TrEMBL record:
Protein name: ABC1 family protein
Stored PANTHER family: CHAPERONE-ACTIVITY OF BC1 COMPLEX CABC1 -RELATED, PROTEIN ACTIVITY OF BC1 COMPLEX KINASE 7, CHLOROPLASTIC
Top-rank lineage group of the source organism: Bacteria
Keyword Repressor assigned: no
Keywords: Membrane, Transmembrane, Transmembrane helix
Transmembrane intervals: 35-52, 72-94, 588-610, 622-640
An MF annotation (GO) of this entry: ATP binding
InterPro entries membership: ABC1_dom, Kinase-like_dom_sf, Prot_kinase_dom, UbiB_kinase
Pfam families: ABC1
The Protein kinase domain, residue ranges: 218-491
């Protein structure tokens, strides 16, 4: 092996060894950073080491050794230790200037650059779409101008998955947009442009691992429904069974990643700059939407959700859901039985008043039962997911996003809804403080008064729209009360449902529907069997505690009677307190030893005399160099500990 390569290999091995030793002294620094710092210090200090050997007369300029081998090895070890100390010094300075984690790794940097390029290309694409769709011109005139809704729909439809979903969410927010724009946005639920036929067949082939013709008896390339993330095709299996196949749009998952990043950057910036964005909570809205999108990308999750919702509707013959073919369902392909019908809202004009009212009541009751009784509910009940079947039943579709609420929270939400119906602000305040995260600084009486005002507006103005219900959420925001995600999802489901309810029956809004449905729901929640089970579990738990109480009481009273009852307290019994004291003692001892080592090193170096090793080097010099190196390492260790502690790093 050539000598230069051998030297580099030895240096690399020494750098690895030094990096591992440095790990014991400076924690939290990556191996790559420690290795590079050690290698650089070795390369930079080699000339300095040669100069030291010549100045101390250990080696002559022609390479002749002037001291014994033990002395030479001792000096070499000492030089190596100082090189190690120099590497530690470089690491400490680097950590103070550029702490570990403040800069991405090379691999992460490459990924970030790739993402940035994709994001900038997407920025340019979205800008061109906005201009060519006429949205820039419409924006100058405002949302109330003619043609604004049409231009917005055109722009969102051409922008892809994430922005179509944004338009769908906005179409259920009457408190944000005018009715004309909401009506235009509602077309995004079921009129998205279909993907090319060949791309869909390629997706099926990649998911099944074989050609669609080998799995299916027939497949209709023209989708009968196209939404933001997927489109649905009619097909038959080999045995002739009719099915519908929901296929994810090719490239949808990758596009969601880029668009979600752009959207969240915009929502964060909007909340920083605009008061209206903070009031609307656009950042939370964006984060919730992107999370729901990621969940909707896995159709195996949707298959499980469909089965769960179907189980909650098992005793409701008026509502049905598709039956999933689990054998053919994959991450991006969902196969299920057909649900033959049309959008319920589109069929309203063909129904008589009694049928419309009964459908509204059935839909509202089933939704509230899912939220309050079963604890699992459809979290995306927009009009496009509610069908009127040919046999008069209601069909629900698209279970990519569902909400789950625990039993105690369900009872508190039920109490809150009853308080809404009864205009009882005291009960509403109690339910809010029990169900939501209410800070200690919140004035309960002021909260009760403001909730009472919101309930009065809700019950006595005759306006039961989602915009009026938002008075309640405004109070929550004003008092900085955090509503858990699934609970907020339940309220969002109800507000999304409001459009369908009012289309069926103009006087059947959210409040009227809740007032109509709550008696049957309370009956289920307070059913004797349910109450008996709760009472049984409570009684069993209480009985176990009660059995232990007499023995504990007897033990305490006996000790008191004999005057032997004592309270045993231990200082620093908490582990965190012991760790705090140990770290402070460690710092103090390190400071003391470092100071002593530095003073001794200076004393040894400046004191003349000592056993002569060469004409310019004495034993005192070597001792001072060794002790000084120990002091430097202790100082560096102390600096790192203090820096990591007060910078909040682990």
């Amino acid at each position: 092996m050539p000598a230069p390569i051998l030297e580099l290999l030895v240096l690399a091995l020494l750098a690895v060894a030094m990096a591992e030793v440095a790990k014991r002294i400076i924690t939290g620094v990556s191996f790559v950073r420690r290795f590079v710092a050690s290698l650089l210090v070795f390369l930079l200090t080699l000339p300095a080491g040669t100069w030291v050997m010549e100045q101390t007369r250990i080696v002559t300029p022609d390479g002749t050794l002037q001291v014994s081998w033990p002395i030479f090895l001792l000096v070499m070890v000492l030089c190596f230790v100082w090189v190690f100390a120099a590497a530690l010094t470089g690491l400490v300075v680097l950590e103070m200037v550029l702490p570990s984690g403040s800069m991405p790794s090379p691999i992460q940097s490459a990924r970030d650059i790739r993402m940035a390029l994709r994001r900038h290309r997407r920025y340019l694409q979205l800008g061109w779409i906005a201009m060519s769709s006429g949205l820039w011109k419409a924006l100058r005139k405002g949302p109330d101008s003619p043609g604004f809704g049409e231009a917005l729909v055109k722009m969102l439809n051409r922008s892809g998955v994430t922005f179509i979903k944004l338009g769908q969410v906005l179409s259920t927010r009457p408190d944000v947009l005018p009715n004309t724009v909401m009506t235009a946005l509602s077309s995004l639920w079921d009129t998205a442009a279909p993907a090319p036929e060949q791309n869909i067949r390629t997706m099926l082939r990649s998911q099944w691992g074989r050609d669609p013709e080998e799995v299916l008896g027939s497949f209709d390339d023209t989708p009968f429904a196209a939404a933001s993330i997927a489109q649905v095709h009619r097909a038959t299996l080999k045995d002739g069974t009719a099915v519908v196949i929901k296929v994810q749009r090719p490239g949808a998952a990758e596009q969601v990643v880029v668009d979600s990043d752009i959207l969240l950057r915009f929502t964060r910036l909007a909340e920083q700059r605009f008061a209206w964005a903070r009031a609307m909570g656009v950042d939370a809205l964006g984060r919730g939407m992107t999370k729901a999108l990621k969940e909707e990308l896995d159709y195996r999750r949707e298959a499980r959700n469909t089965k769960a919702i179907a189980a909650t509707l098992a005793d409701n013959p008026a509502i049905t859901t598709p039956v999933v073919d689990e054998e053919l369902t994959r991450e991006k392909v969902l196969v299920m039985s057909p649900v033959n019908g049309s959008s319920l809202v589109s069929k309203v004009d063909t129904l008589d008043d009694d049928t419309r009212h009964e459908l509204a009541r059935t839909l509202m009751t089933a939704t509230l039962q899912g939220i309050l009784v079963h604890g699992i509910f459809h979290a995306d009940l927009h009009p496009g997911n509610i069908l009127l079947l040919d046999d008069g039943r209601i069909g629900l579709l698209d279970f990519g996003s569902v909400g789950v609420i625990d039993a105690e929270t369900r009872q508190l939400i039920a109490a809150l809804l009853v308080a809404f119906v009864a205009d009882d602000n005291s009960a509403a305040t109690t339910a809010v403080t029990a169900a939501f995260d209410v800070g200690d600084e919140v004035d309960r009486m002021a909260l009760q008064r403001d909730l009472g005002r919101a309930l009065t507006l809700l019950t006595h103005t005759g306006d039961e729209s989602a915009a009026t219900l938002n008075e309640f959420f405004t109070v929550m925001r004003d008092y900085r009360i955090t509503i858990p995600g699934d609970v907020a999802g339940a309220f969002r489901t109800l507000t999304s449902l409001e459009g369908t309810l009012t289309a069926l029956s103009a006087d059947y809004g959210l409040l009227a529907g809740a007032e109509d449905a709550m008696p049957s729901i309370i009956t289920k929640l307070a059913a004797p069997k349910q109450l008996a089970m709760i009472a049984a579990t409570t009684t069993m738990t209480s009985a176990l505690l009660a059995r232990r109480l007499p023995a504990r009481t007897e033990q305490i009273t006996d000790l008191l009677a004999r005057g032997q009852y004592t309270l045993n307290t231990r200082m620093l019994s908490d582990r965190s307190d012991r760790q705090w004291l140990r770290s402070r003692l460690d710092d103090a001892m390190s400071s003391l030893f470092a100071a002593v080592a530095v003073v001794l090193a200076v004393v040894f170096i400046v004191i003349p005399g000592g056993p002569a090793i060469t004409s310019t080097l004495t034993g005192y010099d070597l001792a001072g160099a060794a002790i000084g190196c120990v002091g430097l390492v202790l100082i560096l260790r102390l600096v790192v500990r203090l820096f990591t502690r007060y910078s909040g790093r682990p």
